[in-house]
């Protein structure tokens, strides 16, 4: 695992795969690519997917300075500005059709957070005040509509008109959760990137509050993060999500770096999460297990979990100096290149593999599989290795 290998994978496999999906007629990217690599030009386009693509191309330009990534970022920004925003009630729609017409007009705080993430990154490379203003408007919307003063949690799902609704879109495993770890992690992620773009005292206070929620409410005594909670922050399922935990470890650490925060309990949480995942969830071949529910492990090898594992362990190595983390990151990269990477011409990364490392025949691009996780992992590692 080295900088040049990361750069080669990113610039010759990952980004070209997504760039070829550019929809010149209707905007954005084509929404699906079937397992057989057939591009489905009339597939739906997700609001979250658009935000993630905007982030990926903007960040790729910021790090690599190649003009084609800047043009793709401009392309995604135009689509988002024209199609993804609700001009009447505010916020980002959940789902659009292939033409950019609204299919599902519900609102989700998770989606608003990701659009902040994308817009703030776009602002970092363009200094386009309009993009920053849109991000700040979404920040205000989350704080006004999406924060519950009674329990100190961020809410989840709403109708188009911002009437709170059951959290169907971000609940899984047979439960409907009032509060999720996933939404809180990605609000933290979004606000941290917004702080990089436009630091303010108010935003710092909210980030500090989110750090407190993670350590006091989401982080558990067994060093896992709780996944789904009721409205009183009680965990409602025996579930450990290994990928989310290792991802959260480095995202939380990034916030600590940006804020120059030296509160010991936060740093201890980051380290303990990483050590816990290293000890309980890594397979002998270097891959990461998916999750554990009621003591039963799901050992599906999922693309995003592997991407976050590689980065999360490398971050833990930088933080602790423990060579075991570096070795685990390198082993995961080796596994990705041997098995997750799609060797077919024009392929990218498979969605997932069985525990025997056989590809599961799922669409290789769709609203939940976009250019975000593996692009970010490569970019982060390139930046970190350049500093060595």
Top keywords for this entry?
mainly alpha; three-stranded antiparallel β-sheet; 12 helices; 10% strand; globular; EC 5.1.3.11; Cellobiose_2_epim; isomerase; Cellobiose 2-epimerase
Topology record:
Elements: H1 3-19, E1 32-33, E2 39-40, E3 45-46, H2 47-64, H3 67-84, E4 95-96, E5 102-104, E6 107-108, H4 109-126, H5 129-145, E7 147-148, E8 153-154, E9 157-158, E10 164-165, E11 179-180, H6 181-197, H7 201-218, E12 228-229, E13 239-241, H8 242-259, H9 264-280, E14 291-293, E15 296-298, E16 301-302, H10 303-320, H11 323-340, E17 352-353, H12 373-386
Antiparallel strand pairs: 1-2, 3-4, 4-5, 6-9, 7-8, 9-10, 11-12, 13-14, 14-15, 16-17
Enzyme class: isomerase
Function: Catalyzes the reversible epimerization of cellobiose to 4-O-beta-D-glucopyranosyl-D-mannose (Glc-Man).
GO biological process, one term: carbohydrate metabolic process
